[in-house]
Specification:
The chain has about 260 residues and is an alpha+beta fold. It folds into two domains: about 1-80 and about 225-260, no CATH class; about 85-220, no CATH class. It has helices spanning about 1-25, 225-260; strands at about 35-40, 45-50, 65-70, 70-80, 85, 95, 100-105, 110-115, 120, 125-130, 135, 145-150, 155-160, 165-170, 175, 185, 190, 200-205, 210-215, 215-220. Strand 7 (about 100-105) and strand 8 (about 110-115) form a beta hairpin. The longest helix has about 35 residues, at about 225-260. The two termini are about 20 Å apart.
Length: about 260
């Protein structure tokens, strides 16, 4: 009874769909979060008669007989569309408008990437993430700084006590990838480069196709709750239909067993 195992693959596929939707909805308020989308492929086919085979009378049959064995999860793809901008008024909250990722230095020396621009100052005045990881290149704010301004091109200026002209503290640089969907999620709004993503290309905001920096803003999640709810309903109904196929197959086996008695 192929239908039993074929329908089971359908139930497993829809379970993966629900799992992905649940993670999207859970992160609807996560800064810089990018929604995921499940992609499926049909499984192998059992060929009972090949298309174009010769008939008993020597004719060429226009169609064949192939029986499919279900579906499998092919990929969970990350959609890097822009999220809504949220005005925070905090000068160290940075949003990228366009292409690019912030570069973050882990304590282990490894570079990771993020769209989450929620930055703060540590005890030494370094610009860091909520986890205390430094921004690359490192920007240190002097202790006598009265205000910090980040320009759209990433230039960071500080107004210090007793000075009339702002002091240049450095410039935020961005990174981009040939295939951002190939980045590996590491949790904590961080992404790791892989062979699929390609090597990072770094540059200055507003140049060579990189996006610009919006200070005082954060990029919200790109999850659309209404769309996720629709997809959840469709996945739930597909799961129910697959379970009914299993029930129908079980009923057919029961009838066949009764005939043999």
């Amino acid at each position: 009874m192929r239908a039993l195992f074929t329908a089971a693959t359908g139930m497993e596929a829809q379970q993966s769909q629900i799992d992905t939707i649940a993670n999207n909805i859970a992160n609807v308020s996560t800064t810089g979060f990018k929604r995921s989308r499940t992609e499926f492929q049909d499984l192998f086919y059992e060929t009972l008669r090949a298309p174009g085979a010769a008939g008993t009378d020597g004719s060429i049959l226009p169609t064949g007989v192939q029986v499919g064995h279900g579906v499998q999860l092919a990929a969970v793809n990350t959609i890097y569309s822009a999220g809504d901008r949220v005005n925070t008024g905090n000068p160290l909250d940075l949003a990228i408008e366009g292409t690019g990722f912030f570069q973050i230095l882990r304590p282990t020396g490894e570079t990771v990437y993020t769209r989450d621009g929620t930055f703060k100052l540590d005890a030494n005045g370094n610009v860091v993430t909520s986890l205390g990881y430094q921004l690359i290149p490192n920007i240190a704010v002097p202790p006598d700084t009265l205000s910090v301004t980040v320009l759209p091109d990433g230039t960071v200026n500080a107004t210090q006590a007793g000075q009339t002209q702002p002091t240049n503290l450095g410039q935020v640089q961005l990174a981009r990838f040939a295939n951002p969907s190939g980045l590996r999620s590491a949790g904590y709004n961080l992404l790791e480069a892989t062979q699929a993503s390609g090597d990072p290309q770094t540059g200055i905001p507003q140049q060579d196709g990189f996006g610009n920096i919006s200070a005082g803003f954060l990029e919200g999640s790109n999850v659309q709750v209404a769309e996720e709810l629709v997809q959840m309903i469709l996945a739930q109904r597909a799961f129910e239909v697959s379970s009914r196929v299993i029930q129908a197959g079980d009923e057919m086996l029961r009838v066949a067993a009764q005939l043999s008695q």
